[in-house]
Design a protein that fits this description.
globular, 418 residues, mainly alpha, 0% strand
Length: 418
């Protein structure tokens, strides 16, 4: 077996382990095991493995900060309050409740990243659905899964994959980002809403929502969490406007907000730290190493050459093809490794901004096709199961095809039109 074939085999098995989770072992174990195997079998030098890990430093800092902010918001009841706010203002209308929860999901995803929507907002929405005594909470829970990806390119901070696609943190300045992605984001959010509502309208029409749900006052801890979220968003918008990396300011803001929360509660930080999914960090690091190994096989050079050739002949068609291809590929190998390969390919090919933008849309929005497309969707499925609910992979795939396909087409068309 050639070294290239062995490398691809190990990377494929590791990625399959991340997606399938044999024996229900954490995703990080499979990514790290794959990275270790590549080094142990001499397919990747330790130096290149370390270089691969180092490429993700800004992503790690970003994730740490966002996980801390999300945990403070969860502990202090901010997300529960937001979900109950939507329920109280629904005034007995399932359709209005659906729209309000969707709006909350857009805000949470845009300001706290898609992983926060999947992990923290999902249980809050299910709790609100229980308080509203709805017959079927799944239509409302599905909002969290789909908006987590559909709204994940509103801002650079809305998805860690954004940092990945743009080379581990070298994002465009905020105004450049908004000029390129504001309209496609709006298209993705609106089309996703319409498509998802159309698929769930029968269940919503047959449902009822209690009208006696009371909106409790947001306590001091919740206000602290809200201030932390808003201040962090403002800080990151400022950093993005200046073209600075986002990892360090996110981490500082998260640590500061968490520290104030712990001091207010007179608690040591260890209790909060135990609730954070630290396994996400070695998972991402392992994926960076896997992609570093794949790059060493020359596949990125081949993809880059083909991308250059196609772009020279038909740039608009190439952008459409790149976005659509990545939208599908994310569901076969998860959007983090797909994004890493796309980023390396685009950088090597010196791809145009239109092509890079289409790639990012494919990486962010494409995962709405299946439950394995993104880490956020996988985390959403776990949160759903913890609450005693589930949705089969085939059922989600049929739903995802109806929701993701028109949204991806609308977002790509809008991005290439502006």
């Amino acid at each position: 077996m050639s070294d290239a074939l062995a490398t691809w085999s190990i990377a494929g098995l590791a990625t399959a382990g991340v997606i399938i989770r044999p024996a229900r072992l954490p995703e990080a174990i499979w990514a790290v095991a794959g990275a270790i195997a590549l080094v142990a079998f001499g397919l990747l030098s330790p130096g290149l493995a370390v270089a691969g890990v180092a490429k993700g430093y800004d992503v790690y800092l970003f994730l740490v900060g966002m996980m801390l902010l999300a945990e403070v918001a969860r502990r202090e009841g901010l997300f529960d309050w937001l979900a109950r706010f939507a329920t109280a203002f629904a005034k007995g209308s399932p359709t209005r409740l659906f729209a309000l929860i969707y709006g909350v999901g857009v805000v949470v995803t845009a300001l706290l990243s898609n992983d926060a929507t999947a992990v923290v907002l999902t249980p809050a929405v299910l709790a609100a659905a229980a308080a509203a005594r709805v017959a079927d909470p799944l239509p409302y829970a599905l909002i969290c899964a789909f908006i987590a990806n559909a709204a994940s390119f509103v801002l650079p901070i809305s998805n860690p994959a954004n940092l990945v696609v743009y080379g581990g943190g070298h994002l465009p300045a905020l105004w450049e980002w908004l000029a390129r992605f504001a309209a496609p984001s709006l298209a993705a959010i609106l089309v996703t809403y319409v498509a998802l509502y159309m698929t769930q309208r029968a269940a919503l029409r047959a449902d009822s929502v209690a009208q006696d749900v009371k909106l409790a006052r947001l306590g001091g801890g919740g206000l602290l969490a809200a201030i932390g979220v808003v201040a962090t968003a403002a800080l990151l918008v400022g950093a993005s406007a200046l073209g600075r990396d986002l990892g360090a300011p996110t981490a500082v803001a998260g640590v500061l907000t968490a520290s104030i929360s712990c001091a207010r509660r007179r608690e040591w930080p260890w209790a909060m730290a135990r609730q954070i999914s630290w396994g996400v960090l070695p998972l991402v690091a392992g994926l960076f190493v896997l992609v570093e190994a794949l790059e060493a096989t020359g596949v990125v050079a081949l993809l880059a050459e083909e991308l250059r050739r196609q772009a020279a002949q038909a740039p608009t068609a190439t952008a459409w093809g790149a976005g659509a291809l990545l939208g599908v590929a994310c569901n076969l190998m998860n959007n983090l490794p797909a994004g890493l390969i796309a980023a390396a390919t685009a950088q090597s090919a010196q791809a145009s901004q239109d092509i890079k933008g289409a790639m990012l849309i494919g990486v962010d929005l494409g995962p709405n096709l299946s439950v394995t497309g993104s880490l956020a969707t996988i985390l959403w499925l776990h949160a759903l199961r913890r609450e005693g609910l589930d949705i089969g992979a085939w059922r989600f795939l049929k739903l995802g095809a109806a929701v993701m396909t028109p949204a991806l087409v609308a977002a790509l068309a809008t991005q290439l039109a502006f």
